[in-house]
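> forwarded from #structure-qc
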């Protein structure tokens, strides 16, 4: 049976499962729609949290980044896993004890201000839509390659599925859907990793195969990969090129952003009590670690197989997977020296003008200058980083059912996070913006109607981001984490652990962090991409890491403004004491 036929079967079965769960878990009240009625088992919540948090960036893009960045890509591993530990130990139990529906709920109550709640809603929406753009792009890539439909149509199909179970089931339906999605995505990630580890090193455990010798060769995998890379002009795979301050800032931004992500925080509101929140955090960390300890091995296997199977190979004899991805514009080859051989080298295969992706027809559009322009590097191959995990089973010549399984897993990862993000957006609009700010007297039934309508609008906007993506998946997600670190995280942290920050300080801090971080990202990534280099960055800090500086600005402004304005009321100080009691 063909890969396409098997993919249709696997994706069809998993989609049917998700829809069935949504129908059986339909939310009948705002409590069930927002926080699943606070009745989710800690183990189930741990799996749902892992699926919610391990997005298309984790499944599709992270290993691709490490494949191309080598050691520099480890910032994503350190930042995202470290951030979850920070969230689980530092924030989650206290927010669960607060016991409301949303992050803006906490900020609005702690800072006794409707304006603080409104600013938090705006920050949340910006963060969530930035994050969901990466998920929808991941959905489009999977559909375009494995189901052979246009990326736009793939995004629309994904939108329809998410809309159905998010609107119908709310948090209750999404929680149990995400349990199923975790099982699908982790199985789909591990199976090809185990296969490829056995093929390359003979070791069935990818984490150990990563550091093992290659079969029939007296050389370790990473040592061989370093030799291959240096032979064709790259830096060794195990070397890092990033400045230490940028590594620190990106890692910190990802960590602090993780601890401020609203769609992950809200998962701890769905369990019965504080003890259950702590247990579910522990289970989630175990479930997350299964994928994250496997990712470095997957990235190394992918890079090794890619270079072994394509470098200095005649284009006419190129493997079929190369041409499959070339057909949808996510791989491209340009024969710069007219020798008919595919040759990898440092630098761009094409001359970049604007950071745009190839469209579904394979046209490079504004990404490249005409083919008769003088080449600026010897590299002849353009490879979209987001395809490495998806293409890995094909590169390793694994059975068709494994390739189809990976496609289903990638969709599960993207859809689970997209659903969580869209629900957080709708909850913030219906509960925090409408119920708590604009129309405080509406009934629960009407609030639920507004929540479902908000999901509809959010899905449409998310789909547009997927069709017109602002960057590759992990890059877009890194921006979202930076924005969360600069806006929501300081307000939550200071709200729990200090009594002196008042409403004026919190509002000023969030606005300052948002303006600085968003302005920096927009300036270097979208307004002036030609200036996007370490020589032009502030203190050598990239847009992916600038959220750390935004966080410090937020805290500094919050403290200064609070010291110059009226003291926090006594009842708010009592609330902080109550939240912090064991």
């Amino acid at each position: 049976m063909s890969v396409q036929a098997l993919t249709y079967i696997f994706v069809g079965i998993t989609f049917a499962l998700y829809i069935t769960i949504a129908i059986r878990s339909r939310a009948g009240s705002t409590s069930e729609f927002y926080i699943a009625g606070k009745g989710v088992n800690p183990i189930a919540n741990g799996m749902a949290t892992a699926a919610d948090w391990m997005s298309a960036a984790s499944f599709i893009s992270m290993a691709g980044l490490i494949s191309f960045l080598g050691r520099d890509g480890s910032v994503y591993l350190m930042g995202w896993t470290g951030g979850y530990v920070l969230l689980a130990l530092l924030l989650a139990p206290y927010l669960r004890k607060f016991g409301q529906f949303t992050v803006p709920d906490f900020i609005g109550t702690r800072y006794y201000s409707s304006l603080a709640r409104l600013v938090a809603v705006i920050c949340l929406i910006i963060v969530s839509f930035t994050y969901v753009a990466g998920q929808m792009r991941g959905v489009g890539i999977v559909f375009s390659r494995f189901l052979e439909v246009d990326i736009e149509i793939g995004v629309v199909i994904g939108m329809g599925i998410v809309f159905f179970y998010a609107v119908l089931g709310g948090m209750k339906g999404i929680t149990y859907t995400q349990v199923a999605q975790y099982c699908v995505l982790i199985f789909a990630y591990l199976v090809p990793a185990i296969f490829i580890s056995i093929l390359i090193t003979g070791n069935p455990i990818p984490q150990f195969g990563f550091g093992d010798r290659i079969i029939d060769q007296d050389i370790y995998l990473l040592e061989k990969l370093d030799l291959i890379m240096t032979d064709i002009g790259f830096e060794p795979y195990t070397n890092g090129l990033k400045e230490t301050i940028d590594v620190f800032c990106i890692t910190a931004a990802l960590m602090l952003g993780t601890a401020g992500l609203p769609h992950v925080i809200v998962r701890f509101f769905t369990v019965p009590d504080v003890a259950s929140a702590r247990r579910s955090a522990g289970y989630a960390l175990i479930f997350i670690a299964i994928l994250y300890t496997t990712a470095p091995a997957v990235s190394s296997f992918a890079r090794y197989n890619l270079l072994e199977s394509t470098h200095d190979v005649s284009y006419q004899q190129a493997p079929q997977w190369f041409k499959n991805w070339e057909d949808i514009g996510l791989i491209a080859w340009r024969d710069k020296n007219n020798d008919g051989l595919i040759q990898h080298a440092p630098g761009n295969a094409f001359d970049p003008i604007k950071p745009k992706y190839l469209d579904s027809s394979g046209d490079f559009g504004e990404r490249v200058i005409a083919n008769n322009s003088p080449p600026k590097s010897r590299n002849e191959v353009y490879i979209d980083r987001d395809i490495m995990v998806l293409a890995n089973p094909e590169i390793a010549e694994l059975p068709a059912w494994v390739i189809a399984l990976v496609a289903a897993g990638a969709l599960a990862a993207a859809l689970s996070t997209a659903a969580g993000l869209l629900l957080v957006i709708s909850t913030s609009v219906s509960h925090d913006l409408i119920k708590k700010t604009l129309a405080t007297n509406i009934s629960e039934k009407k609030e639920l109607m507004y929540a479902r309508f908000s999901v509809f609008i959010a899905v449409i906007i998310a789909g547009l981001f997927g069709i017109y993506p602002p960057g590759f998946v992990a890059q877009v997600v890194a921006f979202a984490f930076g924005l969360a670190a600069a806006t929501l995280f300081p307000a939550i942290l200071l709200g729990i652990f200090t009594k002196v920050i008042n409403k004026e300080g919190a509002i000023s801090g969030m606005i300052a962090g948002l303006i600085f971080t968003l302005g920096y990202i927009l300036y270097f990534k979208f307004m002036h991409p030609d200036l996007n280099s370490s020589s032009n960055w502030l203190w050598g800090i990239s847009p992916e890491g600038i959220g750390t500086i935004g966080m410090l600005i937020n805290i500094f402004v919050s403290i200064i403004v609070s010291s110059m304005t009226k003291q926090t009321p006594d009842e708010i100080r009592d609330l902080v004491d109550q939240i912090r009691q064991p």
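QC bot note: Residues 105 and 432 are 7 Å apart (CA to CA). DSSP finds 22 helices and four strands in the chain.
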